[in-house]
Amino acid sequence: MKGFAFIFCFIAAVSLADFSAAEPFPPVKNMGIGNETTIPVGHFDYCDRNPADCGIIPYPRGPESMSPDRWRAIREMNKAVNALYVSKTDNEIYGLTEYWTFPSLFADCEDFAIAKRRILIEEFGFSPSNALLTVVRRNGGIGEGHAILTIRTSEGDYLLDNLDDEVRLWSETVEPYLFLKRQSSFDASKWVAIEPEIDRTKTASASADRTSK
């Protein structure tokens, strides 16, 4: 009888160990999208200067179908664009608080995102509805504002970020971001709120390396 009790205790201990080692939350693949919200001032001005990049998307598609080769090419493009431009603030480049544009030599965060969006649409065949400029706050919401690019894929929402050469699932970034809003997938001149579905400060880096593409 004592032998059975020992075996039972051993199995219970192993089970508890397995449970405690498990991740507290499964990865959240897609952002929760809320109602239409305010347009970033810089993007409003950008649309005035670049109307072809904004406005109603004529044929919005569902999330992009991906393959290993396509992921590889996007990862290489993200890394190449990050290395192509010298990162500077709009104030350093133009003497302005916000000036969104396609970069030439220097680029602020949103300029990197604009360049990647154009490449995905023109060279990778992405629908504009699946390459969306996105605004976050760094350091879990207490840091500065930051712009990145979200790609909607059949495997979830992934990020192209000038601060990270990897392409990661939005819910598993290395640095915790507070996601605020992104372009609408139906009208590139409008923006929608991103609803907080999980506590990003607790789960952001739990398995970032595992989920990088």
Briefly characterize the structure.
This protein has 7 helices and 9 strands, in the order αβααβαβαββββββαα. It is of the alpha+beta class.
Explain the overall architecture.
This protein is α+β, with helices and mostly antiparallel strands. It has a single domain (2-211), classed as C8orf32 fold (Roll). 35% of the residues lie in helices and 23% in strands. The protein is built from seven helices and nine strands. The chain has helices at residues 2-21, 41-49, 68-84, 90-94, 109-123, 200-203, 208-211, and strands at 32-37, 86-87, 106-107, 131-137, 145-153, 156-161, 164-169, 178-183, 191-195. A seven-stranded antiparallel sheet has the order 1-9-8-4-5-6-7. α3 (68-84) crosses α5. It is globular. The protein starts with a helix and ends with a helix.
